[in-house]
Amino acid sequence: MTFDPLTLSVVAAAGAVAATGAPEAVTSATASGAAHTGLALVLDKVEYFIMVPMVYLALSFCLIAIVVRIVSIARAPAPPYSLRLYPAAKQPGLAALADTLTLPQVRRHKPLFWVFLMLFHISFLFLILGHLDILPQISLLPETSRHMLGAGAVGLGVTLPLVYFLFRRFRTPIREITVPADYLLLVLLLFLCLLGDMMSWGNSWAANGFVMTKQNFAQYFNGLVRFTFADPRRVLHGSHYHFVVLHVLLANIFFLVLPFSKVAHAFFALPTNLLRRR
Amino acid sequence: MDKQRQKELERLFKTKLHAAMRLYLETCTHCGLCVEACHVYQSMPETRYSAVGRAEIIRKIFLKYFKLEGKIAPWLGEVIELDDIALDRIYDAAYSCTGCRRCMAYCPFGIDTQMIMSIAKLLLVGADKAPELLTMLADMSIAKGQDVESSQAAFADAVADIEPEVEALWPTPPGRRTIPVGVANADVLYVGLSGKDSIIPAAAILNAAGVNWTLSSFEAVNFGAFLGDPDRTQKIAARIVAEAKRLQVKEVAVVECGTAYRVLKQQIGRQPFAVVAFVELIARYLREGKIKLKQSVAEKLTYHDPCQVGRNGGIYEDPRFVISQLAADFVEATPNRELNWCCGGGGGLVAMGEHEFRMKSARVKADQIKATGAEMICTICENCYSQLADLNEYYGLGIKVESLANLAAHALQR
């Protein structure tokens, strides 16, 4: 199946008008789409693929692969005997949850690492909320706000720890236990977040914003959740669009590798901690 | 290594892939928190002597043979081929790990490196590269279980020989046997070790408590567990289980042996009898007033929490209660309980000899003991006792090493 951005853009533009009442988006989209030929047209198509179909593919793949991985573990035989560590917790479930969410082992033995881990994970949660907030259907901040959730601080909250996580891998003994996948995952996340920072900081901290506003991103997100297959170029203007595409590309790659990466600990931390506590 | 052997090892590996193992193999983020948890790494700082360093060998083999990403992009996870070189590394990992699970208390996910090392040990068994001495000892234990009748006469003689030493500690009332053997419906089946030192103090304490007990024909130590062979482990444990069922005892009391206690307490499934560590009985008899101890230890005393009884068995307070009854000057080692340093003799290392490695890898333990300023250290695991005695000599600690049951037996009073 192939998608024609120019044809689809008409539908998209109509959708955008209906959803946001922004007729200027239609005008801009038509003009922009008709102007490109040759290499620029190829780039348009590649960018469209990254911004729309690939998002669906990456997310679907990620969800299916995670479910397959979780199911394959859940269906494996139970351990032959208790793997509990003592002293036994009075409430094993709660204790495992506390281990998972507050990382007391890290706090006790590596306090600085713990600070960065907590900052990263809490910020990451806000990052997810921040992206959901862009959706017109979910408004955590007023729709008119040009700020992303946290006004750029959330991005900083994930980026700084990532730099720390990456650089601590260069030191002994962590260096010796690090494999290429660890470096690549951190580099991928770091660049993904830096590009995100560019947008959120730009919109929050610069007088004129990032050219594209939160409302523009809302139109793009709205098209995605409504499966309009609209060309995002019609609602995301300006040369910064390529950075947005790059951000989405890295996000797509992240979703594609997530089920095979160490990020899977997000799903396995609680059951693994339960083994220690139950 | 030929393909057929490789396939056979791959099959053995697969038998260990239960849900917990899968989580342990797939959750590690290489955070490195466990590195400093290991007494071997603390004493000899090489990555291969860290929990993650050991587990990674198994994890990389798992990645190669059982994971899609290991087949598509092996370089990303630096996968390892299951060959003779890998087996050497596996041996190094498996038999430098004492299975103390201290790393588990450091890991933010609670990954059990001992469990991961059980794959390593099973692969070595499958490749005929397991330590010969442990294999021989395990097979001897199994053989004894299969032909118990032939050794009964010699066993009875040996028991009779040590009865005077029990009597010296606590005279047996008239009409009762000093060391009863094969008593049906006994309240307690005491499972000792092959040496008399594990039987004499226990017999004195049990006689002083006036309980209806009987001595097991078998030794508690489970060389199959040290070997990491689930089949041998179960066969060795099954001898005691069968005896306890045959005699219809209420409780099986395990000698001061951490691995034996953990196997019988946690790894034999639900049974019609309870399993207790002998120190639990001493503490119970003290609380019930069945026995009394005098404060017979004049020296400054410290206590070593054996990993398999403490961290992995949950017995922290009973030994301290018993100590409080017989020693006035007690000092805790730091760290203690859950985070106590392993003595360095577990996982079969004491049985295998390995003197130089055991001594060098337990420097941190020797430092810990030295820092207490204690004149005497006691413990409730024969393996730990042997290792602590060796450390005492090697590092010139100038400390007395004692078994808690022995201290209690010598402190018995009417």
Description of the molecule:
The complex is a heterodimer of chains A (about 280) and B (about 425). Chain A is mainly α and about 280 residues long. Chain A is about 70% helix and about 0% strand. Chain A has helices at about 5-20, 25-35, 40-50, 55-75, 90-100, 105-110, 110-135, 155-170, 175, 180-205, 215-225, 240-255, 265-275. In chain A, helix 4 runs parallel beside helix 12. Chain B is of the alpha/beta class and about 425 residues long. Chain B folds into 3 domains: about 5-130, Fumarate Reductase Iron-sulfur Protein, Chain B, domain 2 (Orthogonal Bundle); about 135-285, Rossmann fold (3-Layer(aba) Sandwich), CATH 3.40.50; about 290-414, Rossmann fold. In chain B, about 50% of the residues lie in helices and about 5% in strands. In chain B, the strands form 3 sheets. Chain B has a 4-stranded parallel β-sheet with strand order 2-1-3-4. In chain B, helix 20 (about 380-395) links the parallel strand 7 and strand 8 (about 400-405). In chain B, helix 1 (about 5-15) packs antiparallel against helix 8. Chain B starts with a helix and ends with a strand.
Please provide a brief summary of the model:
Chain A has helices at 5-20, 23-35, 38-51, 53-74, 92-102, 104-109, 111-134, 153-168, 174-177, 180-205, 214-225, 241-257, 265-277. Chain A is mainly α. Chain A has a domain at 51-75 and 87-212 and 238-277: Transmembrane di-heme cytochromes, Chain C (Fumarate Reductase Cytochrome B subunit), CATH 1.20.950.20.
